[in-house]
Write a structure and sequence with these properties.
- The protein is α/β, with parallel strands linked by helices.
- It has 2 domains: about 30 residues; about 260 residues, Rossmann fold, CATH 3.40.50.300.
- Helix content is about 50%, strand content about 15%.
- It has 13 helices and 8 strands.
- Strands 3-4-2-5-1-6-7-8 form an 8-stranded mixed beta sheet, with helices on both faces.
- Strand 3 and strand 4 form a beta hairpin.
- Helix 6 runs antiparallel to helix 13 and helix 7 crosses helix 13.
- The chain is globular.
- The N and C termini lie far apart (about 55 Å).
- About 5% of the residues have low confidence.
């Protein structure tokens, strides 16, 4: 039978082991990762992603925005940044992923996708595997990683969707945007049945049209797939947004009281963003999805 001193030592040892287990788990899992995608270009996906990153950074989180619209990146323009390096340099092994980062407003970090890089527009499985391996260490440096994907369901996007727990799907109220957004949702849930998807209807004239678009999307998803995403909300067509783009500033920074900025803050408060963790490292899962 343990005496009081031995019992105290055993309890202290168990507590230390428990704390170490928690630290190890955090080190293993790393950052929460949220993918931001759309079915077609022109939905304002990158505007949503950059403002979401800024808002979360202002909340005190260590935020990384990865512009994976590889070869056609524009997040650096929206943040008035001029990165010396991008994903292409990381893929080529010229710099590490950490060395390619550049600091943006409120301390957020950006990894640019580069412009006009053919290897990034149509990478091979081996190239993507090498790139994902190089990106893996970044998960230990941040609380939240937002990945801004190119429109559609390219090879790299599908690998990311297979690995993530959380997807923010950006669309418009036009029928073509809804149709293409539905295609992304269908593909995402096919490769990852447990993925949590939130739909944002962006650049909408009014709430009536936004809700009609949501009803159309939800109806098609339920009819043909038997399930539907969550409705995160809508963002109005606000002249403050194109003005902020011209100023190369997020609208949350240029026009913080605008209707679009208020709507973007509501999107940034979507609860699943706070719980976007996977059982193992994100980029390890993405590498497995390539095989």
């Amino acid at each position: 039978m343990l005496n009081r001193f031995q019992f105290a030592r055993l309890r202290s040892f168990r507590r230390a082991a428990h704390l170490q287990e928690q630290v190890t788990r955090r080190q293993t899992v790393g950052a929460r990762v949220v993918c931001v995608a759309s079915g077609k270009g022109g939905t304002g996906k990158s505007v949503v992603a950059t403002n979401l990153a800024l808002h979360r950074a202002r909340m005190g989180e260590r935020v990384l925005l990865v512009d994976f619209d590889a070869g056609l990146a524009n997040a650096h323009l929206l943040l008035a940044l001029a990165p010396a390096h991008d994903l292409g340099h990381v893929l080529e092994g010229r710099v590490s992923a950490r060395e390619a980062l550049v600091e943006g407003p409120s301390g957020l970090r950006l990894l640019s996708g580069g412009v006009g890089r053919q290897t990034l527009i149509d990478p091979t499985r081996r190239e993507l595997d090498r790139l994902f391996k190089a990106l893996r260490p970044l998960e230990e440096d941040f609380d939240l990683i937002l990945i801004d994907h190119g429109a559609g369901v390219g090879y790299s996007t599908v690998a990311h969707l297979a690995a993530t727990s959380t997807l923010l799907l950006v669309t418009n109220h036009e029928v073509t945007a809804l149709s293409d957004g539905y295609a992304v949702y269908k593909r995402a849930t096919a490769v990852n049945p447990t993925i949590r998807v939130g739909l944002v209807v962006n650049r909408v004239p009014d709430q009536r049209l936004a809700e009609a678009a949501w009803d159309r999307f939800r109806g098609a998803a339920v009819r043909f797939l038997g399930h539907h995403p969550e409705y995160v909300g809508w963002i109005p067509a606000d002249p403050a947004v194109p003005q902020s783009v011209q100023r190369r500033e997020p609208v949350l920074q240029s026009f913080p009281d605008s209707s679009a900025a208020q709507a973007l803050r509501r999107v940034a408060a979507w609860a699943p963003i706070d719980h976007a963790r996977t059982a193992s490292a994100f980029y390890e899962r993405a590498r497995r999805a390539l095989r």
